[in-house]
From TrEMBL:
The chain holds residues 185 to 544 of 782 of the full protein. Belongs to the TRAFAC class translation factor GTPase superfamily. Classic translation factor GTPase family. IF-2 subfamily. One of the essential components for the initiation of protein synthesis. Protects formylmethionyl-tRNA from spontaneous hydrolysis and promotes its binding to the 30S ribosomal subunits. Also involved in the hydrolysis of GTP during the formation of the 70S ribosomal complex. It comes from the Eukaryota. This is Translation initiation factor IF-2, mitochondrial. It is found in: Mitochondrion. Residues 67-237 form the Tr-type G domain.
């Protein structure tokens, strides 16, 4: 949509130029000529008004790409040790040690390795959060750690997690957990995974397997190495310059500070003071904090941050886009709110029609 003119928009949406001009006037936008390019925000707004679904494609054309840390989600069967493993990994971070532990609960954290490399972990384990975000177009996760308890083996949610990762085309690194237990049978787990169609490295495939214990913390360094190796193979890169494209991973309301959103920047740099639209909400970034609660001027790709200054509470998976003014932010947010209300009503309507047809 970038740099599109009214006349092109009319063609793309199948609406008369006069109607699009009417919409633009209504949102307070002055357009002198139908051949004058409009901004991407205005194009999105017009498309929403006429009921066309839009998704912003962020072009990295010509931009300088730099390596970025992988973003990792932990999945697996209940009680196989996802939460314990995340806690243990969190404690391995150099920054966490220096800061005397991570005080903030952010919904994501970074493990910095002595080598200087780092890994970002999403703190909400389980495939529910993973699929909810995917469904909303937020492809934040680069790698899935599939946790399987060595004394319990492959279970229903292990298979579900595998299916979700596969559907999303996200590579898996297997962590066989609880290897400290006398009943641990890691070899049996590997055979099970292999027979479920997971191509393990030691069987000639490309899925790495690491034996760990969240309790004794053995194998955590090997797991981190495996994740970095996987990331290297994927050549994860992001545009660092230019306006940010980010996603919300968690949001909460703080009594004193108002709505707070944990976000991960996918590309570009998010700068404190910028006007943003977050899902259907808007605001101006009053503060950016990192995972130890330190205020930052800006945030770069793969960095989990907490942002303050939104007017309402966004949802996990919402996109964060930077706009040029408060007015733009307001207009775009109200346009998105109207659209989601219309979509909701249409769904109810469709449901009613179906129910009617069924009862006939
Ligand atoms: P989740 O449901 O996957 O998040 O699992 P939890 O992290 O809550 O762990 C479930 C139970 O397994 C807890 O009682 C943990 O203490 C225990 N557990 C987790 N990891 C290990 C491990 O590596 N070794 C042993 N022995 N117990 C573990
Ligand atoms: Mg848990």
């Amino acid at each position: 949509f970038e740099g599109m003119t009214i006349s092109e928009l009319a063609k793309r949406t199948g609406q008369p130029i006069s109607y699009l001009q009417y919409i633009l006037v209504n949102v307070g936008e002055k357009i002198d000529s139908e051949f004058e390019p409009v901004s991407i925000d205005i194009a999105e707004l017009v498309a929403m008004e006429v009921g066309v679904n839009v998704r912003r494609l962020h072009s990295n054309e010509g931009a300088e790409l730099q390596p970025r840390p992988p973003v990792v989600t932990v999945m697996g069967h209940v009680d196989h040790g996802k939460t314990s493993l995340l806690d243990a990994l969190r404690q391995t971070s150099v920054a966490a040690k220096e800061a005397g532990g991570i005080t903030q609960h952010l919904g994501a954290f970074v493990v910095e390795m002595p080598s200087g490399a780092s890994i970002t972990f999403l703190d909400t384990p389980g495939h529910a959060a993973f699929s909810a975000m995917r469904a909303r177009g937020a492809a934040v996760t680069d790698i899935v750690v599939l946790v399987v308890a060595a004394d319990d083996g492959v279970m229903p949610q292990t298979l579900e997690a595998m299916a979700h990762a596969k559907a999303a085309n996200v590579p898996i690194v297997v962590a066989i957990n609880k290897c400290d237990k006398p009943a641990a049978e890691p070899e049996r787990v590997k055979i099970q995974l292999g027979s479920e169609g997971l191509p393990l490295e030691e069987m000639g495939g490309d899925v790495q397997v690491v034996e760990v214990s969240a309790v004794t913390k053995s194998g955590l360094d090997k797991l981190e190495e495996a994740l970095l190796l996987q990331a290297e193979l994927m050549e994860l890169k992001a545009r660092v310059d230019g306006s940010a494209q980010a996603y919300v991973v968690e949001a909460r309301l703080d009594r004193g500070r108002g709505p707070l959103a944990t976000a991960i920047v996918k590309a570009g740099t998010l700068v404190s003071g910028q006007h943003v639209v977050v899902g259907a909400e808007w605001g101006r970034i009053r503060a950016i904090r990192n995972m130890v609660g330190k205020a930052m001027d800006m945030a770069r790709p793969s960095m989990p941050i907490e942002i303050e200054g939104l007017k309402g509470l966004p949802m996990a998976g919402d996109d964060i886009i930077v706009v040029e003014s408060e007015e733009r932010a307001r207009i775009l947010s109200s346009g998105r709110k109207k659209k989601s209300e219309r979509d909701r009503l249409r769904k109810i309507d469709e449901g009613r029609i179906e129910t009617l047809e069924e009862s006939q």
